[in-house]
Amino acid sequence: MSRTASHRPLLLPLAGAAALTMAATLAVPAASASERVRERDDLTRYDTALVPADARARVTAVYDRRGGTEVTLRVRGLLPNRAYGAHVHSNACGATGAAAGPHYQYVVDPVQPSVDPAYANPENEVWLDFTTDARGNAVGRAEVDWQFPANRRANSVVIHSELTQTGPGVAGMAGARVACITVPF
Q1: Which listed residue, of 19, 130, 164, 168, carries a Cα 20 to 30 Å from 56's Cα?
Q2: Which pTM does this prediction carry?
Q3: DSSP-derived secondary structure for 101-122
C-alpha cells in the first residue's frame, strides 16, 4: 500500500531514571500537521524485569490520503527471543498501566472491558505484537483502513507481557502492561 504523508519527528525525552526511553514519530497529512504533532515527556516503564533500563522504542504513525493508518513500533534491547503484545490505547500513560485506559477501538464495544472478537480484533484496534530476536530487537506493524477521528484520538502505545489473544471472552487480552509511551495520534 502506498503512503503519502508529510513526516515530522516527535522525540520523547527520558522522564526519569526508571523510565523506558522511547521516541515517537508521527507522519500526518500536511493540512493537519500542526494539530497532530506535539512533543511529550510521558515515558513510563512498569516492569523492569521485562523491559530493561537500556531498552529503546520508536513509534511511527503514517496517515494516508485514502483514510488509512499504518503504525509501526520498533523496539531495541528488550528480553531476547520473547513475545510481547502491544496495542494503541485510548488514554495517555500514567503512574500505573491502567491509566492508559482500554485499547483504542474505532467502533467501540458497548460492553467493557471488551473481550468480544467482533470488536477486539486487529481491524478495529491497532495490534502491534512482536517477538524479539536474539538481541532483543523487533518490529511490530499494523495497518488499518481508518484514521483516528479529531474528536476521539488515541493517546498511547502500551507494551504487554504476552501476545494478544483472539478467542471469545479473551479477545484483545495480552497480559500485564509492562511499558507505555504517550503518543498524540
Answers
A1: 164
A2: 0.80
A3: -SBP-SS--SSSS---TTTSST
